Structure formats: structure tokens, C-alpha cells
Amino acid sequence: MYLPSHxxxxxxxxxxxxxxxxxxxxxxxLTSTGLVANHxxxxxxxxxTGSGILRGHVARANPLWSDLVDGVEALAIFQGPDHxxxxxxxxxxxxxGKVVPTWNYCTVHAYGALRVHQDVGWIRSQVEALTAWQxxxxxxxxxxxxxxGDFVDSMLRQIVxxxxxVTRLVGKWKVSQNQPASNRAGAAAALxxxxxxxxxxxxxxxxxxxxx
Length: 212
Hints:
By secondary structure, this protein is α+β, with helices and mostly antiparallel strands. It has one domain (5-126, 159-205): Electron Transport, Fmn-binding Protein, Chain A (Pnp Oxidase, Chain A, Roll). The chain is 30% helix and 34% strand. It has helices at residues 12-21, 91-95, 120-135, 149-156, 181-192, 197-208, and strands at 8-9, 24-31, 34-41, 43-45, 53-59, 74-85, 102-117, 159-174. It starts with 7 loop residues before the first strand and ends with a helix.
């Protein structure tokens, strides 16, 4: 990923927070037929190394797990808030007109070896943990135990578990740090006036991340 230093985000707590708030990862793996991308919810767990462990699952019918190239690391991409940035929001447009549109975004790239789990006990534990995490905000959380046991057993046999021990994290927060203060303020104000949730999130990010 192209990463100018003024857009680089290195703080582990910031990177991991995005991974937890936007858990639908684009998992890129190398197979015998080339690169393959799958979109998979992945839950971040603590690890001894500090970078974390990602766990998820895919359908057994998905060739991802059976056609991996041994010894090649996988890449999980987590995409945070993003939004179009109009040059009309920049005060410098009125001053000299030398402005262009752009797109702001935040992303985390997590690298590590991908391990496949076929043990039903491991898969059940992963599914239960993922479900409990995502259902926590519901008034009446659903749990795996709510479904008939034989049905759950049948479903578990149709999936395989995935686990990535993360070896490195790369974060890019492209949130107008390369613009003068007046343009950053103009973009943040325009975004804040939008009813779009992504716009509000980007407005906050522009205000929070000042140029280093």
C-alpha cells in the first residue's frame, strides 16, 4: 500500500479499535490459481505478541481453505470510515483556485500466516464467541444454544475455521493532514452538516488527526 508518512497510523490501540468496529475483513490469499479475495467477519483476540489473533470461518464449499499456498502470508484488510472530499469546501478555492477533489479513508492491513481449523470443537467455540460479540448490543441476544442441537451440529459440519496470528499491522489514515488548517476546517464543517453517518465520522477524524 502506498503510504506517505503524514498518513501513517502506527498506534496499536487505534489500529485495533478500527478492526473491532469494522470487523468485515477482505481476506486476500494466494491459491494455485492466483490471488483470491473473500469478505469475512473476523474477530480480533489478544495475543502474546501484542498484534492480536484474527479468527473467523468460511463455508466448507469455499475453496479458500483447501487451495492455499503453504508458507505464504495472508492479508486481511479492514476498511473504516471514508468519504468524498469536495474542493468547494476549501477556502483556498476562493483564494487561488488551485484545488482538486479527493477521497478520505481509514484502513488497516493485517498480515500473518493463515491456519485452517477443521476440529468441530474449535469451530463451535469460534462461532459462539463471534455470535456473543455481535449479539451483545441486542435487547434479547441470540445465542448458538437457542437453536436445536442437531441443527447446530449440521451447520458446524458445513464450515471450517480460519485463524491468523498477526505479525504486522499497517494503518493508513488519509484524513486531510496534507491540507492547510483552513481547508481542514472547511472540510470538517461541511461534512458535519451532512446527515450521512460516514460524513460525520470523517468530520471527527479530520478534527482529531492534525498534521504531525
